[in-house]
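target protein:
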Amino acid sequence: MKVKMILPALTEALSPHWRPIKYSLFPPLGLATIASFFSPEDEIDLQDEHVETLNLDDRPDLVIIQVYITSAYRAYELADRYRQKGTYIVLGGLHVTALPEEAKEYADTIFLGPGEDTWPRFLADFRAGHPQKRYVSQERDLLSAPPLRRDLIKRNLYLVPNSIVVSRGCPHHCDFCYKDAFFQGGKSFYTQSVDQALVEIERLPGRYLFFLDDHLFGNAKFARDLFTGMLGMNRIWQAAGTIQAVLQPHLLELAVESGLRSLFIGFETLNTNNLRQQHKYHNLNRDYTAAIRRLQDLGVMINGSFVFGMDEDDESVFETTVEWAISQGIETATFHILTPYPGTPLYERMLKEGRILTQNWDRYDTRHVVFQPAKMSPETLEAGYWQAYKDFYRWSAIWQGAATKTSLNYRLRHLVYAGSWKKLEPFWDWVIRGHQLAKMMPILESVLQGFDRVSTPWKSLHTQEFEKSAQFRT
């Protein structure tokens, strides 16, 4: 059977002017995971439109398209094109799960939720000649899932081909997050076994890897066992976590000892009423500054996430947030306009209040205002969002943030990392178009690893215990 898997591109990723590096960071692991359920005799072509031009002249037996909200129209266009050829079309992903009645008009079969339990059933039905119109995930288990098909990934087209996911979902329930809608009807957070995760890590060449899990620290026992198993692997890695996880005793130290160098953290807002309204309770009564200092003392860089447009936000939120982030020495910041995704409690609440301004999914990219803010105009919110990026990444702000660091090495790392991310976009565009991203990995590793790390008595003690354990095992 000839199978075509497509990750459609967002419009910005195909810009003729410059191509943002963020769209060339990671390969499509979701499709590579689905591919693992096929027979070795099946011929699979996995294409990511963010990094390559799609071949649309082929005639596969089955086309599988992963759909996000801002690629929905492109996904539907591709589906229609292949249906006209008589190809069987399957659509799945976040947007399909959120709006199945919309998506089903463009597919022969749709998938709702994660696919570990539904894909084996679909393939058996498809080969028998009677596939169903809809498959809904209910059984959530990664323990029996086969390794994803990394052989289908074109590693040279990505800056971080060593991306990995060892869990699904998140234990928290924020109103603006897609997660609860996607995992409706079953477990919303679950992990691989530690042994599975370690085997997958061993498959990845080189030193550097990036965990794409929504919350790698979400199951503290799993995280602790995983980090312990990674001791001695000589890895350096990045991931996402929460303030709550950072403040847990010993867990962060163990993560750093196993190779953690940079952590994405959803601060989202400095306003406690906003946190309550969005049900982001795990950030309430947490000392942001203490968590930041804890990370910085251990030599971990921070990518802070902030959301503008919550109901308590007025025109002052942009300057207040940016100044705070700079003063805290956060290396990189990701700003978002609050976006009520279909299927989320936030969307349902705003729809009921008559605050949704458009259902043009192309604009649901966290860069455009699609709802009526409570305390400012849509134009003010959008302008403030763009100004926040300009203010945070101006050279004087980068220098100011670097100056908060306690050593010359950490100051230099801050300057190089923050400056390279936003101030060198023309350079990244040249690298992407020249297919030279793979050559940048040694530079990234050097920035993450090539500076002194702070040692702690606990870390030294833990290393001794690990070495004793390793001697005992051998």
Summary: The chain has two domains: 2-136, 162-449. Residues 162-449 form a domain with the TIM Barrel fold (CATH 3.20.20). Residues 13 and 19 are 6 Å apart (CA to CA).
